[in-house]
C-alpha cells in the first residue's frame, strides 16, 4: 500500500476496496488491524506516510483502525451504550495506554478515564469495598437504575443492597438534568497519534473528509483540550495586554517618569517574548517537519506575525531613551491597526465565533475572487488616471483633491465626488466631456463592476461557509502544531523535573516574577530594558 500510494495517489484507496460493496475488503481490514496490534509504532508511521501521499487511503485506514473496544469483563464492566454527554460537546475522548476496557475485582473505584469518557453511567465508587463480585454487580446495576430511572434487565434490587454515598448523590444531582443518550465507544489503534507530524497533516490536508470522521475530530479535540488550550489562552491574554497598553498610551499618555517607564518596559517584555516564541516556531517548521519550509514561508499568518513583531520591536527600541511611544505617531498608528486585526484573527480558535470569522477571512482571500479583484482594481485605476488627465486642463492641477473626490464617487457614491468630477479641467459647471466621464464611471464601475464584485465575494463566502466546521478544526490543529513546535520547560531529557499542577506552579512563578520586575523598575540606576 505504501508503494502504490507513492506511485499513484488516486489508486491508493481503490486497492483496498471490495468492488461488490465499495468498502474496505475484509482481508485488508484484518491485515491492517493485525499490523496495528503487532507493530503499533510502524502502523502510526505508515499511516502518516500514506496520508501524505494518498489522503483517501489514509481516510480509509483511519476508519478501519477505529474499532469497537474489547471489554475485559462484559459482565461486571461492559462497554457503555448510553451516557450523559454535555450539551456543548457531541464527542468525548481520552488518551490512555490501554488495549482493552479493563476491570479488576480489587478496584475500590472505576478508572477516572472511563467515567470521563462515558459520564453518568458509572458512579465511580463501589459501595462495599470488600464485597464479592456479585455485590459489585448489584451496586453498579443499582446506580444505573437510580440514575436512569429504569430497572436494569428487570432486576429488582432492594434498598439495602444499594448503598449510595454522598459523592454519588452529588454527581447524580448535577447530571440529573442531562438525559442519557445512545453513544458509540470507539478505540483508535494508533499509539503516539498526538504528535506534530499528525497535527501538520490534519492542519494542511485538502481532504476535509478526514476531519469529519470521529477519529479525526477526537485527535484534534484531545490535542486542543490537553495540549494547546491553556497555551493559546495565555497567548491571547498577552495580545490583549499589548492592545490595552496601546489604548492607554493613546487615550491617556503618561506624563510621569514611572508611568512611562512601566508601560514601555511591559511592551518591551512582551515584544521579546513574542520574538522568542515565533523564532522557535519557525525553527520547528524549518527543521522538524517534512514540508515545513514551504508551509511556513507561504503562510500569510506567519509573515503577518513577523511584521507585527518587527514593528513593535522597532517602536520599543526607537523610544528606549524617552519611553514615549507618542513621539512616533505614524508607526504607533500602524502598529495599533496590525494588532487589532491580529486579535480578531486570534478569536478563530474559539467555538462561539470561530466558525463565523473563518468564512469571512477565507472569502476575502479566496482564489475565487482573484479575477474580479483584478478587474475591479484595474478599472478603478483607469478612472482615477482619466480624472487626473482631465484635471491637466486646469492651470493649477489639484491631483490630490481629484483622486479623493473620484474615490468618494466610485466607492461611496458621495455627492461631493460628483461635483469634483464635473469640475475637472477648470469646468465649474461641467461640460459634455466631464458629464460623459461621470456617466461612464457610474454605469461601468458603480453599477456593473462593484455589484459583480459583491456577488462573487458572496459566492465565495457561501462556499467557505459550507466548510466552516472542518476549517475550524483545521485551524485548531494548526494551533496545536504551533504549540507542539515551541519550546517547553523542563525539557524532555529532564522528565524527573516535571511536576503536577503545572497551572498553579505557572501562576506562582508569574506572581514572583512580576514582583521582582516591579522592584527592579523602582531603581532608576537600572536600565529599563
Summary of the model, kept short:
This protein is mostly helical. 64% of the residues lie in helices and 2% in strands.
Can you tell me about this structure?
With 529 residues, the protein is mainly α. It is built from 22 helices and six strands. The strands form three sheets. Strands 1-2 form a two-stranded antiparallel sheet. Helix 16 crosses helix 21. The chain is globular and about 100 Å long.
Q: State the share of residues found in helices, binned by percent.
A: 55-70%
On the 0 to 100 scale, the average pLDDT is 82
How many strand units? 6
Largest sheet: 2 strands, antiparallel
Structural Rg: 31 Å
Strand order of the largest sheet: 1-2
Give the termini distance in whole angstroms. Answer: 58 Å
| Shape, principal axes of CA atoms | globular
Tell me the strand percentage band. under 5%
| Class of secondary structure makeup | mainly alpha
Sketch the topology as an H/E string, one letter per element. HHEEHHHEEHHHEEHHHHHHHHHHHHHH
What ranges have pLDDT less than 50 throughout 5 or more consecutive residues?
123-169
Number of helices: 22
Q: Which labels suit this protein?
A:
single chain, 529 residues, mainly alpha, two-stranded antiparallel sheet, 6 strands
Amino acid at each position: 500500500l505504501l508503494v502504490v500510494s507513492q506511485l499513484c495517489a488516486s489508486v491508493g484507496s481503490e486497492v483496498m476496496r471490495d468492488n461488490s460493496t465499495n468498502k474496505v475488503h475484509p482481508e485488508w481490514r484484518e491485515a491492517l488491524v493485525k499490523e496495528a496490534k503487532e507493530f503499533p509504532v510502524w502502523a502510526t508511521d505508515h499511516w502518516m506516510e500514506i496520508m501524505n501521499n494518498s489522503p483517501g487511503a489514509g481516510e480509509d485506514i483511519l476508519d478501519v483502525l477505529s474499532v469497537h473496544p474489547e471489554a475485559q469483563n462484559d459482565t461486571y464492566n461492559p462497554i457503555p451504550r448510553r451516557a450523559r454527554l454535555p450539551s456543548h460537546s457531541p464527542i468525548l475522548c481520552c488518551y490512555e495506554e490501554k488495549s482493552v476496557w479493563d476491570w479488576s475485582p480489587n478496584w475500590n473505584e472505576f478508572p477516572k478515564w472511563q467515567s470521563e469518557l462515558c459520564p453518568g453511567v458509572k458512579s465511580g465508587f463501589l459501595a462495599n469495598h470488600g464485597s464479592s463480585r456479585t455485590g459489585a454487580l448489584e451496586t453498579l446495576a443499582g446506580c444505573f437504575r437510580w440514575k436512569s430511572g429504569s430497572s436494569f434487565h428487570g432486576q429488582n434490587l432492594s434498598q439495602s443492597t444499594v448503598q449510595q454515598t454522598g459523592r454519588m448523590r452529588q454527581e447524580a444531582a448535577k447530571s440529573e438534568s442531562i438525559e442519557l443518550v445512545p453513544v458509540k465507544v470507539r478505540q483508535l489503534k494508533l499509539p503516539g497519534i498526538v504528535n506534530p507530524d499528525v497535527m501538520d497533516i490534519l492542519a494542511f490536508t485538502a481532504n476535509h473528509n478526514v476531519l469529519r470522521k470521529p477519529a479525526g475530530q477526537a485527535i484534534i479535540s484531545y490535542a486542543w483540550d490537553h495540549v494547546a488550550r491553556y497555551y493559546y489562552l495565555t497567548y491571547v491574554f498577552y495580545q490583549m495586554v499589548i492592545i490595552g497598553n496601546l489604548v492607554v498610551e493613546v487615550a491617556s499618555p503618561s506624563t510621569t517618569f514611572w508611568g512611562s517607564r512601566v508601560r514601555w518596559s511591559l511592551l518591551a517584555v512582551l515584544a521579546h517574548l513574542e520574538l522568542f516564541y515565533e523564532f522557535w516556531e519557525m525553527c520547528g517548521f524549518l527543521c522538524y517537519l517534512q514540508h515545513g519550509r514551504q508551509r511556513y514561508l507561504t503562510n500569510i499568518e506567519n509573515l503577518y506575525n513577523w511584521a507585527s513583531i518587527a514593528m513593535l520591536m522597532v517602536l520599543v527600541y526607537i523610544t528606549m531613551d524617552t519611553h514615549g511611544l507618542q513621539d512616533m505617531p505614524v508607526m504607533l498608528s500602524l502598529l495599533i491597526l496590525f494588532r487589532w486585526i491580529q486579535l480578531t484573527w486570534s478569536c478563530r480558535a474559539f467555538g462561539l465565533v470561530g466558525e463565523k470569522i473563518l468564512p469571512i477571512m477565507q472569502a476575502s482571500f479566496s482564489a475565487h475572487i482573484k479575477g474580479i479583484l483584478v478587474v475591479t482594481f484595474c478599472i478603478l485605476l483607469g478612472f482615477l488616471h482619466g480624472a487626473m488627465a482631465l484635471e491637466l486642463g486646469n492651470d493649477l492641477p489639484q491631483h490630490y483633491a481629484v483622486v479623493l473626490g473620484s474615490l468618494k464617487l466610485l466607492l461611496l457614491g458621495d455627492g461631493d465626488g460628483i461635483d469634483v468630477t464635473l469640475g475637472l479641467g477648470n469646468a465649474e459647471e461641467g461640460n459634455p466631456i466631464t458629464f460623459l466621464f461621470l456617466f461612464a464611471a457610474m454605469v461601468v464601475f458603480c453599477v456593473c463592476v462593484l455589484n459583480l464584485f459583491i456577488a462573487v465575494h458572496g459566492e465565495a463566502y457561501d462556499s467557505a461557509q459550507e466548510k466552516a466546521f472542518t476549517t475550524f478544526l483545521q485551524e485548531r490543529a494548526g494551533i496545536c502544531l504551533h504549540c507542539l513546535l515551541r519550546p517547553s520547560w523542563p525539557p524532555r531529557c529532564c522528565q524527573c523535573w516535571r511536576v503536577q499542577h503545572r497551572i498553579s506552579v505557572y501562576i506562582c512563578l508569574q506572581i514572583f516574577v512580576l514582583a521582582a520586575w516591579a522592584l527592579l523598575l523602582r531603581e532608576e540606576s537600572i536600565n529599563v530594558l
